[in-house]
Amino acid sequence: MLIDIVRRFHEVIELFESLEAIAQAVAAICKGAGFHYFAIAHHAHWHPGCSELLRVHNYPIHWATWFDAQGLGVRDPVHRASQMRNSGFGWWELEHLVDLTPDDHRIRALAVAAGIGDGYTVPYHVPGERSGSCSFAMEPGLRFPRDQIPLAQSLGAFAFEAARNLVVRRSSPRRRPARLTEREREIIVCLGQGKQEKEIARHLAISPATVNAHLKNARSRCGFSKSSPLVVHGLFTGSITYGELLPGCCSPRSRSCS
Fold it and tell me: Does 149 fall in a domain?
């Protein structure tokens, strides 16, 4: 059964030595499942010289070339929809996930003209890393097989992780992001909620000078000249969550409540 093949793929994730080997393995499973295309990629503007960017696919070359020339690595509607989901989604659901613009409809029409029809995408999100996804697609006129969605979900997650492992191993070591102290984290959550330093001081029952000192230390350690980027840093590294920034949110990890 195909699910057994996917299970074996998962068991040997750490053994793949090249993206080409991963592509061959994924292509073989796709063929058995009836998928015509696959694409494993970071959502970023692609350029061959960047070793930290992941992209491996079997899409038509003319489509990939046009896609890159248009700079669609970030603004492609499927990639934008990936930001709205933690699990996979069918391309037939796009209009329910993002507001599709006339340009989005044009992109989808051009994809069909290039030979790429219905599809299914599995998003990938890890704090501190670029978002990405693994997509599977059919030729135009063919409906994506709904009974193969569980297989696409598991294969997509495993394939992206296998490819990511290779990219991480071949990339130059990166400096670990600076960590926030618990008090800095609490203050930055308040900052992300739109509070000024005096308001933050009242909420946390500390002095404005103490708030300022913590922000100064955090800016110095993280390499920022202003405090607002600390919110982005916290989200990017997973120190804080989007939910904590919502008005009226009271997180058990923070005393900063509206």
Answer: yes
